[in-house]
Hints:
The protein has 148 residues and is mainly beta. The protein is 9% helix and 42% strand. The radius of gyration is 21 Å and the shape is elongated.
Amino acid sequence: VAFTVILMIAGTSCARHGKGELPADVIMNPNTASGQSDPDALPVIEFATDFHDFGKLMSGEKVTYAFKFTNKGKGLLLISKVSTSCGCTVSEYPKEPIKPGEGGTIDVSFDSEGRIGLQNKTITVFSNTQPPTNLLRIQASVVDVKDM
């Protein structure tokens, strides 16, 4: 019975490559057991800018901005996730590996519905770079239509 349980656990733990997971041969981890890494093998994400000011918006207005980036490193750049500081901000990003020298955009949409005043939002980009996160920021001054 114990042997059967061990076999079942081993069989299910090895079959985890499913939807949303990246295959092991695509991910390059230059870190070693000693904690040393080869910085030449790393991807490097470089943004043209990490801040965008939408300026003055009327409440209810929806706006979008594309943060442009380039992989300045020597390894494949993989963006695993992009999270935002609130539900009023949505983002789209490339799901496929970005080759060295190539780039893409992280498209950020802001919905000012129900918001008034100065709005500062952050977007966190998770990738296989060192450090593994990069912060982007957007800002807008939202005014009520009746105050115009």
